[in-house]
């Protein structure tokens, strides 16, 4: 069989899932997500692993819940260069071996007007997205900005003809110091784009860290978004920082609450790629020391994003189906987490963000009403953020209107009580790892059990009923 034939067969396989033309993009969007079940389609950024061998990165794709790879070139990664060195045929067989597709090729250096050959390569690989930057004057506002974006779109037209022919969407990332930088520039681009083949790669990192603004922007851009970077500003990525500060760019680590963002993505039934992302300093190194550690870090963010999605799903459900506190009092509904014995592993505890460490390790308190689980009513289990030990059941949660999640009972043996440093209150800590949870109060007569565990949301993680509990991490297996 000649090479051409095999390549076109591969293309047929990999491009089967998403149509390439405007009509099929729209049809896919309607078809895949008509139901309430909304998920993010993950793509793994190869540069998260620096200059690691592309075969090694491909082996990680599925482990991160992704189905596709975003091939990054130097200086961030070098997997795009590795593709050239290997040759397309060898590379395609690697893809096939790992059952991974190329979701995107990132190409800043070529720029938006230099992508013709890259689009043809993408086409041969079955890849339908190329990310690049915009081109034009910077720092404009109002009508000047609009006409500059219109000029850019005009200049893109011959290139979009190639994009249409090759089935590639050219996604322009909003970027600092670029024509396409501000929310307005992104809106103009979406509005003036003559074709779904000129799209947007949405990077929250480069935008104001304002959840309302970001959510509204996602809603107004809608279908024009082809790539969503799950990436926040944190403390930036331009200077060398201690690793824990650098990692604040990752979802769930820095301050940005992604819940309103995923709510907006859900509202628009977003069907493009999502890439959990950060930049290390210097560029070209893996974000953490080992391939396994990078994958674990990406999964940590993915778990966080799923929690955000779960919260959104819970909020949008009607409340009638959920039994009220009064109805469930005294009647313990069967929760599958109760019947399973939690797996235990020996190892280091989950890494904590600065805010998590402040509460769990320094007995800090999150502000009332701001924790993520105060209003959560879904069935499931609350586990320790640091060691995953089961702490509380949703059945024991009640609305205390105090601004923090409240429970009138703990899972047997999960919580240790001790006199608080103030000598007055009773502190509660995780019985396994000693992480600070909050305080327990008795005699308030809020429920029949007359007990209120007042717990910081940040000290816990919620695992929805039906989802697998992560193993509990212990320092040493008991004899
Ligand atoms: Zn713990």
Describe this structure in words.
- This protein has helices at 3-14, 22-32, 54-61, 79-86, 88-98, 116-125, 142-166, 183-192, 211-221, 243-246, 259-267, 291-316, 325-328, 336-339, 354-360, and strands spanning 41-45, 66-71, 101-106, 129-132, 169-173, 198-202, 225-230, 273-276, 344-346, 380-384, 390-393, 397-398, 406-407, 415-419, 426-430, 436-442, 451-455, 460-464, 472-474.
- The protein is α/β, with parallel strands linked by helices and 479 residues long.
- The strands form four sheets. It has an eight-stranded parallel barrel, surrounded by five helices.
- The radius of gyration is 24 Å and the shape is elongated.
- Mean pLDDT is 86; it is low at 1-35 and 316-335.
- The structure holds zinc ion.
- Zinc ion binds at residues 384, 386-387, 389, 430, 432-433, 435.
- Zinc ion (ZN) binds next to loops.
Q: What is the CA-based Rg, rounded?
A: 24 Å
Give the CATH architecture of the largest domain: Alpha-Beta Barrel
What is the first-to-last residue Cα distance?
62 Å
Number of strands: 19
Which bin fits the share of residues in helices? Answer: 25-40%
Individual helix count: 15
CATH class wording of the largest domain: Alpha Beta
Largest sheet: spatial strand order: 1-2-3-4-5-6-7-8
Which fold name is given in CATH as the topology of the largest domain? Answer: TIM Barrel
Q: Could you state the CATH homologous superfamily of the largest domain? A: Divalent-metal-dependent TIM barrel enzymes
Molecules bound to protein: zinc ion
Measured by DSSP, the beta-strand proportion falls in 15-25%
Tally of discrete structural domains: 2
Q: Label the overall shape.
A: elongated
Structural class: alpha/beta
Low-confidence stretches: 1-35, 316-335
* Quaternary organisation: single chain
Mean pLDDT: 86
Largest sheet features = 8 strands, parallel, barrel
